[in-house]
């Protein structure tokens, strides 16, 4: 006898671990940052930002009044959990041809595996986007649940307020300490140079930050590699080879990321990034309505954050 709840559990047991493994392996932030599953169920993610020190610190004369006591200045950043889902449907014919729950699972294996790939790609795109369906200056069918339904990705986290004025509930236009450092050229493409990269690098060092990774698109990555062509070693053998396997800047890896925004290079500290998962892979049977089918709802709750965007930088308007 077909029991929807039992089949939902079988789907979760069989495909859940594989989904989480491929999500961590095949998404760029899954490779660079270990997703952390939250133990406690909270309705949102909050963290404290220390944006100013004790105002009473300073020199004074022996007979001068101490003045009023000072204290550290804090604000609270807040992000909501984001839901990604996929709906799997088992037709009545597939159920009629099945003699057991296991064979039902086999009948929908191909559909489920394909749905998992689609769900994984959707999550990966959102991790790179601005949280409102925008990626690479376009909308690649993200935010199907409406604006702000997506995971708040890297484009939202790393900005000076010109494109994303509000991040994690804090307005960058009035809170300078929440602005990332952005070097742009007013929308006019310009050649990539080491001087431009040092501009971002040095500014982040002045701010007290560190850079562990530099992320960009494949085209921008190739442009940087060609920029270094003059320092590559000459090959003495008759066999000539081109290209490059890895690139770095000041000892930091420069990584090409599929679907990354063109003309943009982000200087990041991976210790500042948190990818939190509230619910990794949950399967629930749902009413199929008037269809001769059984429907299963797979959902994944997660969120992405950059703890202190002030310590992140972005080089933009890089010519192709």
Molecular structure report:
- With 320 residues, the protein is α+β, with helices and mostly antiparallel strands.
- The protein has one domain (4-39, 75-232, 243-315).
- The protein is built from 8 helices and 14 strands.
- The protein has helices spanning 4-26, 28-32, 92-97, 101-107, 109-128, 154-157, 194-206, 218-227, and strands spanning 36-37, 44-52, 73-80, 82-91, 166-167, 170-171, 181-183, 213-216, 247-249, 252-256, 265-268, 273-286, 293-306, 313-315.
- The protein starts with a helix and ends in a 5-residue tail after the last strand.
- The mean pLDDT is 81.
Distance between termini? 60 Å
- What is the string of SSEs from the N terminus onward? HHEEEEHHHHEEEHEHEEEEEE
Radius of gyration: 25 Å
Number of strands: 14
Low-confidence stretches: none
| Global geometry | globular
Integer count of domains: 1
| Main β sheet profile | 6 strands, mixed
The overall average pLDDT, rounded, is 81
Report helical residue fraction. 25-40%
SS strand fraction: 25-35%
Please state how the strands of the largest beta sheet are arranged side by side: 7-14-11-8-10-9
Derived structural class: alpha+beta
DSSP summary: helix tally: 8
Keywords:
single chain, 320 residues, alpha+beta, six-stranded mixed sheet, four-stranded mixed sheet, 14 strands, globular
Compact summary:
With 320 residues, the chain is α+β, with helices and mostly antiparallel strands. Helices cover 28% and strands 26% of the residues.
Give the helix/strand layout:
Blueprint: H1 4-26, H2 28-32, E1 36-37, E2 44-52, E3 73-80, E4 82-91, H3 92-97, H4 101-107, H5 109-128, H6 154-157, E5 166-167, E6 170-171, E7 181-183, H7 194-206, E8 213-216, H8 218-227, E9 247-249, E10 252-256, E11 265-268, E12 273-286, E13 293-306, E14 313-315
Parallel strand pairs: 1-12, 7-14, 8-10
Antiparallel strand pairs: 2-3, 4-13, 5-6, 8-11, 9-10, 11-14, 12-13
Helix pairs in contact: 1-4, 1-5
């Amino acid at each position: 006898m077909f029991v929807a709840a039992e089949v939902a559990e079988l789907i979760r047991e069989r495909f859940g671990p594989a989904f989480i493994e491929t999500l961590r392996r095949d998404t760029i932030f899954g490779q660079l940052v270990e997703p952390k599953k939250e133990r406690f169920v909270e309705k949102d993610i909050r963290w404290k930002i220390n944006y100013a020190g004790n105002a009473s610190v300073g020199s004074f004369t022996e007979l001068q009044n101490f003045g009023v006591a000072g204290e550290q200045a804090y604000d609270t950043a807040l992000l909501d959990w984001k839901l990604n889902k996929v709906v799997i449907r088992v037709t009545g014919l597939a159920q009629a041809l099945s003699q057991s729950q296991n064979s039902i699972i086999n009948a929908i294996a191909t559909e489920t595996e394909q749905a998992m790939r689609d769900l994984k790609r959707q999550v990966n795109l959102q991790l790179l986007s601005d949280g409102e369906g925008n990626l690479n200056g376009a909308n690649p069918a993200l935010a199907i649940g409406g604006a702000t339904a997506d995971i708040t990705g890297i484009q939202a986290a790393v900005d000076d307020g010109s494109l994303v004025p509000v991040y994690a509930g804090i307005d960058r236009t009035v809170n300078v300490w929440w602005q990332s450092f952005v070097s742009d050229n007013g929308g006019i493409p310009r050649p990539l140079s080491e001087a431009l990269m040092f501009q971002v690098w040095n500014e982040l060092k002045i701010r007290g930050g560190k850079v562990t990774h530099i992320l960009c698109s494949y085209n921008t990555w190739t442009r940087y590699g060609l920029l270094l062509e003059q320092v590559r070693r000459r090959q003495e053998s008759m066999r000539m080879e081109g290209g490059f396997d890895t690139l770095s800047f000041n000892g930091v890896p420069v990584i090409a990321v599929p679907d990354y925004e063109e003309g943009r290079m982000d200087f990041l500290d991976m210790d500042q990034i948190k990818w939190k998962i509230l619910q990794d892979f949950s399967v629930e049977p749902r009413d199929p309505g008037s269809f001769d089918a059984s429907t299963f709802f797979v959902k994944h709750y997660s969120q992405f954050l950059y703890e202190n965007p002030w310590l992140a930088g972005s080089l933009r308007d890089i010519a192709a």
